[in-house]
Amino acid sequence: MSLKLQWLLLGTLLAASGCSSLGVKPWERELLAREDMLMDAEALDLAFDEHIYFSKEASSGGQGFAGGGCGCN
């Protein structure tokens, strides 16, 4: 077997083994399913984030009211 073929085989095996640990294990799902792990767990933080987003984007993004880029709604 040539040296190039050996390196190619080794690289292929390493690349294939790198994807073997993706995903959430069953015993980790309980931790990730908690309410405080949600992306929008804090309602006030979510409201601030939405305000900053539509103020910077100079559009309301379907929020139900008009706004400008200055944030002076």
What would your notes on this structure say?
This protein has helices at 3-17, 29-32, 43-56. It is elongated. The protein starts with a helix and ends in a 17-residue tail after the last helix. The protein contains three helices and no strands. By secondary structure, it is mainly α.
Task: Supply the key terms.
single chain; mainly alpha; 3 helices; 73 residues
Structural class: mainly alpha
Largest sheet: none
Q: How many helices?
A: 3
Rg value: 24 Å
Let me know the number of strands. 0
Strand percent estimate: under 5%
Query: Could you tell me the mean pLDDT?
Result: 76
Secondary structure blueprint with pairings:
Blueprint (H helix, E strand, L loop, with lengths): L2 H15 L11 H4 L10 H14 L17
In short:
With 73 residues, the protein is an all-alpha fold. It has helices spanning 3-17, 29-32, 43-56.
